[in-house]
Write a structure and sequence with these properties.
Elements (H helix, E strand, L loop, with lengths): L9 E4 L8 E5 L11 H15 L4 E6 L4 H13 L2 E7 L10 H8 L2 E6 L1 H4 L5 H11 L3 E2 L7 H8 L11 E6 L3 H10 L4 E6 L5 H12 L8 E4 L12 H14 L8 H13 L8 E5 L10
Parallel strand pairs: 2-10, 3-4, 3-6, 4-5, 7-8, 7-10, 8-9
Antiparallel strand pairs: 1-2
Helix pairs in contact: 1-2, 1-6, 2-3, 6-7, 7-8
């Protein structure tokens, strides 16, 4: 249902700071102009399931700068489905829309703003039932797009070529992408998820996701929580300078919310000699460039 505009490819990164290892990037960011990277993967089977079940409307959740809201609006529009975005922050409804929400509305998404306390109920059955009462027989996609169908899509990022790498790294927010990657690696190599959020909760989230997905035996993974730069969407001059240098030196754009933090972490771990000499590392570029420089 979603068009794949370009097959992702793997390219090697050359930089003076990369000593004794080889670093490659899988360019998932190039597969679609609006539904890029992991969002394309996460939404693929959710769209198919919604259509198979006879739904004509997607309902999902996100903040004002959400890559997921942006991508879901575009994906639903392309697939011929309606979309509703439940947006965190009731105070935003009387303000001018930012670029993300403006784009979502132009794609046909109905935006509904709710207060932050109510938003925390987004996974509760009673709240979801109330939404269906208000908006009809909608197909609900969780915040960030993470569910079993999302893991199935993200698992497909892992090709036989990807399984040859010693380490596979990706950024992580809700845990769906890294969980699908873990499943796809089938016990080979090691997967490192770089958390974009502050706190250790993501480790348990990923463990629960891969267990529910039928892969509780897989242990070749870890969640690194050292490179969130203060929390979700937080940044500082050090991160900004790294992203600028990487783009100039390597010709690959990064965003400051997810991929920039992951790549900073990879470079820092290389310099700390975390990776054995001769290691081949693959970093998955999950897109999200629409939020760059907010």
């Amino acid at each position: 249902m979603l068009k794949l505009y370009q097959e992702p490819y793997i390219q090697e990164v050359h930089h003076e700071r990369l000593k004794n290892v080889r670093l490659f990037v899988k360019r998932e960011d190039l597969i679609h102009p609006y539904v890029s990277g992991n969002k394309w993967r996460k939404l693929k089977y959710n769209l198919i399931e919604a259509r198979n079940l006879g739904h004509d409307t997607l309902l999902t959740f996100g903040g004002a700068y959400s890559n997921h809201i942006y991508a879901t609006a575009a994906a639903a529009n392309e697939a011929g489905l309606n979309s509703i975005g439940i947006i965190r922050g009731e105070e935003l409804q009387n303000k001018s829309l930012n670029k993300t929400l403006t784009f979502a509305r132009k794609q046909g998404m109905q935006l509904e703003f709710i207060d932050r306390k109510t938003y925390r109920l987004k996974s509760e059955a009673a709240f979801l039932d109330a939404l269906k009462t208000s908006y009809g027989d909608v197909f609900v996609v969780p915040e960030g797009g993470t569910n079993r169908l999302a893991l199935k899509g993200c698992e497909e990022m892992v090709t036989p070529e990807v399984r040859k790498f010693d380490y596979v790294c990706c950024s992580s927010g809700t845990g769906g992408t890294v969980s699908g990657t873990i499943a796809g690696m089938q016990g080979k190599g090691k997967v490192i998820g770089f958390s974009a959020l502050k706190g250790d909760f993501l480790k348990n989230e990923v463990r629960d996701l891969i267990t529910d997905y039928g892969s509780p035996h897989l242990s070749n993974w870890e969640i690194n929580t050292d490179y969130h730069f203060g929390g979700y969407a937080k940044r500082n001059e050090l991160l900004d300078r790294f992203i600028e240098d990487f783009e100039v030196s390597c010709g690959i754009p990064l965003d400051q919310v997810y991929t920039g933090k992951m790549m900073y972490g990879v470079f820092d771990l290389v310099e700390k000699e975390y990776f054995p000499r001769g290691t081949h590392i693959l970093a998955i570029h999950t897109g999200g460039l629409q939020g760059k420089n907010y």
